[in-house]
Write a structure and sequence with these properties.
This protein is mainly α and 156 residues long. The protein has helices at residues 8-11, 38-66, 69-90, 104-109, 113-123, 132-142; strands spanning 2-7, 18-23. It contains six helices and two strands. Strands 1-2 form a two-stranded antiparallel ribbon.
């Protein structure tokens, strides 16, 4: 939408100063004082655009509510801690770290603590530093966490 200004005398208005006319990008009227039907159409289309934006914001809000934000935050903090600890265990920065993948959901699927510890030991088999403290602390931190499942799509 473009904005054009015109003098009040040209528009036939009674007040002093300039008037602002909104012109449709489709071209057409709006110059001078002829703002009969097009300004109504513009205001209706602008109102429709506002409603669409509000609906999109509302829909975006629904997406984030499907996940428990508190659980997501805990998961993020845990993942950052894991990366930091792996950097210390391997003695390198994140970019130089060997391809080590610790899947929290996979650990949560394990039947018990011993099975989780075995999975972690298998993952960290090529680490030259002792991993027992890391494994023990990680198992403590994931205790009570829930597995995250992707949101289910609603059928129409």
């Amino acid at each position: 939408m473009s904005v054009a200004t015109g003098g009040s005398e040209a528009a036939g208005g009674g007040g002093g100063g300039n008037r602002v006319f909104f012109q449709s990008p489709r071209g057409g009227g709006g110059s001078g004082g002829s703002s009969g039907g097009s300004s109504r159409e513009d205001s209706v289309s602008a109102a429709a655009a506002v409603v669409q934006v509000q609906q999109r914001r509302h829909q975006q809000g629904k997406v984030t509510v499907k996940y428990d934000r508190k659980e997501l935050r805990k998961r993020l903090v845990l993942e950052e801690w894991i990366v930091e600890q792996l950097g210390q265990l391997y003695g390198c920065e994140e970019e130089e770290m060997p391809d080590v993948e610790i899947d929290i959901d996979d650990l949560l699927d394990a039947a018990n603590e011993e099975e989780r510890a075995l999975k972690l030991q298998e993952t960290l088999v090529d680490c030259y530093k002792p991993t027992e403290e890391f494994i023990k602390e990680l198992l403590t931190r994931i205790r009570g966490m829930r597995k995250l499942s992707p949101p289910q799509k609603k059928s129409i």
